[in-house]
Amino acid sequence: MTQTRIAFAASPVPAAQEALALLTAAHGQSRLEDADVVVALGGDGFMLTTLHGTEGRDVPVYGMNCGTIGFLMNSFSLDGLPDRLAAAEETVINPLAMKAETRDGRVVRALAINEVSLLRAGPQAAKLKISVDGRVRLAELVCDGALVATPAGSTAYNYSAHGPIVPIGADVLALTAMAAFRPRRWRGALLPKRAVVRFDVLEPDKRPVMADADSRSFRDVLSVEIRSEPDVRHRILFDPGHGLDERLIGEQFV
């Protein structure tokens, strides 16, 4: 029987580093380019870092929680890892592609597995114009910010901003406002996964805005375009009965 080649990656926190030492001693350490699977040790933030680091390699990632939240992670154990990997169920998710234009004329791009958010970067509320597939849907949103979230990211920042939890297979994106002042009762929208969302920043000199894609930030943006990126596939492994579908349902009954 061929042994599974595992590439371990760990966050810098002591618990993850200790787990890394013990697991590599027991199972060895493969190079990423040779690995059948990547095992990420840490929390959700480190899992996102690992997924971004494996873009384009078509290698599944199995996370074990050595951090604080661990929504994208499996429970941690030193025992039985080969059997857990063999039994794991795979979920494939597509990230969001962000293209932003900044005040100094740059065009910046990034991928986001959870969400792309726009946030006010000064003392005054942001003013945003929102278009979907080239059609203006909201001429002016006065708010602290707004975001577009994937189903996988719908329980993260999106949920904290009172956005909806979206099932993994729903093929929709969540568009959610943060502290909307005008229209005061606008709570966002559910959009088809294929939709292209554009934010134009109104009064950018007076009301500067930053864009953030999975914690990678870009200041002084003038416009941000967001779409799902079907050509990039992230393969995430979960223990049976503890996949993303179950976790998304469970979050709604806490």
Strand composition percent: 35-45%
Named CATH topology of the largest domain: Tumour Suppressor Smad4
Classification by helices and strands: alpha+beta
How many domains, as an integer? 2
- Kindly provide the radius of gyration, computed on alpha-carbon positions and rounded to a whole number of angstroms: 20 Å
The CATH superfamily of the largest domain appears as Probable inorganic polyphosphate/atp-NAD kinase, domain 2
Secondary-structure element sequence? EHEHEHEEEEEEEHEEEEEEEH
Terminal Cα separation, in Å? Answer: 42 Å
Helix percent band: 10-25%
Query: Which strand order spans the largest sheet, edge to edge or round the barrel?
Result: 6-5-16-13-8-9
| H/I helix tally | 5
Number of strand elements: 17
Average of pLDDT: 94
Low-confidence stretches: none
The general outline is elongated
- Supply the CATH class of the largest domain: Mainly Beta
Q: What would you say the CATH architecture of the largest domain is?
A: Sandwich
Index terms:
single chain; 254 residues; alpha+beta; Rossmann fold; Tumour Suppressor Smad4; 2 domains; 17 strands; 17% helix; 39% strand
